[in-house]
Hints:
Chain A is an alpha/beta fold. Helix content of chain A is 37%, strand content 10%. Chain B starts with 34 loop residues before the first helix and ends with a helix.
Amino acid sequence: MTTPKATTHVTQNEALIFERSQTGRCGYRLPALDVDETPIDELIPSNLRRDDDLAGVPEVSEPDVVRHFTRISTWNYNIDLGMYPLGSCTMKYNSRLNERVARIAGFANLHPLASERDAQGALEVIYELQQHLAEITGLPGISLQPAAGAHGEMTGVMIIRAYLDARDGEASSKRRVMLIPDSAHGTNPASAHLSGFTVKTVRSTPEGQTDLDALRDLCSAGDVAGLMLTNPNTVGLFEKNIREICRIVHDAGGLVYMDGANMNALVGWARPGDMGVDVIHLNLHKTFSTPHGGGGPGSGPCCCTKELEPFLPVPRVVRGGDGFKVDYDQPESIGRVKAFYGNFGMHLRALAYILTHGRDGLREATEAAVLNARVIAEGLTSDYERPFSDPPMHEVVFTDKRQGRKGVNTLDIAKRLIDYGFHPMTIYFPLIVQGAMLIEPTESVGRQEIQQFVEAMRAIAREAQEDPELVRTAPHTTKIGRLDEAAAARKPILRWKPEEKSATA
Amino acid sequence: MLRSVGLESPEELFSTIPADILLTDRLNVPDALSEMELLARFESLAAQNAAALRPSFLGAGAYTHYSPTIIDSLIQRSEFFTAYTPYQPEVSQGTLQAIFEFQTLVCQLTGMEVANASMYDGSTALAEAVLMAERVTRRNKVIVSPALHPEYLHVAETYVAHAGIELQQGGFDERTGLSTFDDAAVDDKTAALVVQSPNFFGCVEDLAVLAERAHRAGALLVVCVTEAISLGLLKSPGACGADIVVAEGQSFGVPVSFGGPYVGLFATRERYARQIPGRLVGVAYDREGRRGFVLTLATREQHIRREKATSNICTNEGLIALAATIYLETMGRRGLQEVAAQCAQKAAYAARKIGELEGFSLPYSAPRFNEFVVRAPAAAEGLLERIADEHNITGGLALSRYSPARANDFLVCVTETNRRSEIDALVAALKSI
Lengths: 505, 433
């Protein structure tokens, strides 16, 4: 008889649930059927029913499921564990109170097709959040229907298209160019394309600002429908010529769309509506603290000027009679972008965030977010190349230029940061900054942790000089090392199959 | 801390914003509420949502099903709900493995070969399927069943408005309640037939026949499922020959929550994998040969391909996909079958009882899953209002909401959560009016 050997505990090697499945295991119990049973053949003929007995769907117990997800969860970094400095992602603290609010039975169990009179509380939530977001952005027209940032972008660009079509009639067909800075997020051109626009790129100046001369040139052709601009931009700088930028685009007959991904730098301090912006989307899962959930759900409300308001998606939630009502009578609307009213659960959380912060708290949060970024900018300038010298807003970009001389690049630095207990920053974005490291601390980190982060980054800079191989092979402390992503894309395995059991176990 | 960066006042932090656009007044937002005040405020708002607090027979794209307790408990783990999109695989294996399991489960249920990491919801998944059908076939006519959820159709119309795609309406058999597609209409310009099953009126479509009809013309069959629990009982769209299957996954343990957040399922054939919108997770190995998971085939996506991407989608519905994954694994193979069977049985019971009432009829003859249309002797909207007021039951959805011509019709949905006593109370209420 062989002696059993101790091996790495299963928590570090939790299999796929399909590999744990045991015939006959069960994790649920339903009440017995309480109506007379009709032979199933009389209800649905056999040719319309499944004949595969759901083969492959797992059979596991409740403790199996709880252990499974608890174990794999420990392989995730998360905000509650520490600073999550992803630039342009605004990974701020997600209050448990907001989670509790979203789970109140009167909201969670409310069906979206309940009649107006039976859903007044929910409609009031939507209406009140609309009012606050309109005040925060300075843009009075608003729809909470879009489900995420890119969805809000698509909605905003469609509104521009509908407005121009209504304003210019046939002549609108000559205006099909959407201008997008070279620093923009990839969702911007993809959203513009969905509305039938051709994308032209506006270059940035060496100082990291939109190039006004280039913009004037592009606008002179007379075919410009609009400009999509992120402000503060994706290198973390406020577009100081924003008024002039809007004027140039407006004079050329176009509209200005602002990507609100970076609103956490502005709330309570400046409003896009006052800058000349026509339409913006907000990311409630960034600025307004609704949880990212490992990739959603998000919520991407679209706010616009009075002039653009008739083109917002239907239905609109408005005040009416002595309550709130759902208004479908919007003949110029672009239509619906999602079933029902958008991600209502996120609306609840965002409203709770606004109400618990209040007018002063919102302003102070912005202040702390910018100050934290400023501390990082100061703290890392001695060790990392900072391509732009203007003071940053809520996020700051560095590059790997100095470390590159030792063969250490941005990816290596990001992976080594994991060994120091931090989630990496956003890397290789924006594309205009070679080897970009975009760092956004948010207001949710204290002074001590900011200092620890700065020290970790400095330690990595020293390692890059003294022991570059250590950095190049990081991370060293995780469950798995760097994965061969190229091989994964060449021969994609996108689902588990029974026959792969032995090959992949 | 301000001093440490050489500043004296918070205002100096915003010195790069031109003075004429800096806010001088405070925002017109209320002062901060404490935790107790906030809860009281929301509790009082929630109490005004009368529909949430009474027995309900509403379905039509959002379904009340039992959600095992462990789902909400697990998705509230910090490691899941406060994590970002898994761009850094070494510190995101939990999320990535869960998505890989989600993709596998979606393939198993739909009978398809590839599924993505999720879409916003069923309606936007359908719109993306229409766009994908055009990309795959290079044809621009899409014929949509009139028995598709009206809000889904409306969303698809918005998405394709500038995509050069023509949406045409198919036919509808008023006797059976099933879609029909005119032979002359399905031609060599047709990219896809789009059909929902069970359809908006609760009738189960014969997908195999429709797939054959589409394929004969070289078109795709796009199948949309709004009640995903039906997949526990009905033949999978994949087994019937569908080319793209989209579904609303809310039925998998996700609260109805006034319409969202939900989760869109999107599945297709392996040969179209590179045309699929959204995120995909695949298997990868590290240098030691250890198995892990990564986001893959990113060259389809907007952050690489920009305006040439298969979609603009970025953030999707990660946490809701996780909830659906936990639901499917907890209920498992037998649980899904049992829930589906209970839904069908209880709906059949309710339909029989309502159909026996004088003046009420069930207009469609096709097999149904857990929803059915009732034709009332009077306008359905007023009838349902009275039942709500006098009997404290939400009896269903008046179809006049979407179609004024259907003034007397309403849609009833029954799930495993509706006890027999509730069904009997609904029948008694209808009888008394």
